[in-house]
């Protein structure tokens, strides 16, 4: 009985080996190359990469961008018309788009506390006039609390009044 079971199992597992005698039973590196593409697409991509038309180095494709600063400059309440928000030297008078990164809906301006709901690079914010949000620190701060960057003046001397008048 045990002998017939073993022979049956041997026959079952040897069928794939005999059907695909030219390919190994386990996946090889060549078969893994076609994981998400068809073999013809993979062949075209390999030819482009080998000829130098396609650069596989991802570090060349990365671009760094400066952290976004959103400065809420003010809100204008216009009686019966919708309120206008002033953000980063732009406004919501014509559209809700301040620039490519910042959107502010005019209907989201709260006229009681003058807060504005903004979307900056898909981050939802609520700012009041005089506040600033920095993408690097991810904090909302009052403008008067933000320290100006210190400039190094070592070795520099202010011009004298005599040199200015000459």
Topology:
Elements: H1 2-19, H2 29-32, H3 39-51, E1 69-76, E2 84-87, E3 90-91, E4 102-109, E5 116-120, E6 123-127, E7 131-134, E8 139-142, H4 161-165
Antiparallel strand pairs: 1-2, 1-7, 2-3, 4-5, 5-6, 7-8
Counting DSSP H or I runs of 4 or more residues, the number of helices is 4
Strand content: 15-25%
pLDDT averaged over residues: 76
Helical/strand content category:
alpha+beta
**SSE string, helix = H, strand = E?**
HHHEEEEEEEEH
Brief summary of the model shown:
The chain is 24% helix and 24% strand. The chain is an alpha+beta fold and 166 residues long. A five-stranded antiparallel sheet has the order 3-2-1-7-8, with no helix packed on it. A three-stranded antiparallel sheet has the order 4-5-6, with no helix packed on it.
What does this structure look like?
This protein has 166 residues and is of the alpha+beta class. The longest helix is centred in the N-terminal third of the chain and has 18 residues, at 2-19. The strands form 2 sheets. A 5-stranded antiparallel beta sheet has the order 3-2-1-7-8, with no helix packed on it. Strands 4-5-6 form a 3-stranded antiparallel beta sheet, with no helix packed on it. It contains 4 helices and 8 strands. It starts with a helix and ends with a helix.
């Amino acid at each position: 009985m045990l002998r017939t079971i073993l022979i049956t199992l041997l026959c079952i597992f040897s069928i794939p080996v005999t059907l695909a005698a030219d390919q190994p039973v386990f996946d090889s590196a060549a078969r893994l190359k076609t994981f998400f593409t068809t073999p013809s697409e993979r062949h075209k991509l390999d030819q482009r990469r080998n000829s130098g038309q396609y650069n596989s180095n991802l570090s060349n494709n990365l671009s760094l961008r400066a952290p976004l600063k959103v400065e809420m400059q003010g809100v204008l309440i216009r009686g019966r018309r919708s309120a206008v928000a002033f953000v980063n030297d732009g406004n919501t008078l014509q559209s809700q788009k301040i620039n490519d990164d910042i959107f502010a809906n005019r209907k989201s301006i709260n006229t009681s506390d003058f807060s504005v709901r903004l979307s900056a690079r898909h981050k939802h914010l609520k700012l009041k006039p005089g506040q600033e949000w920095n993408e690097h620190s991810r904090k909302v701060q009052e403008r008067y609390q933000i320290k100006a960057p210190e400039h190094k003046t070592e070795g520099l001397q202010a011009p004298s009044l005599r040199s200015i008048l000459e």
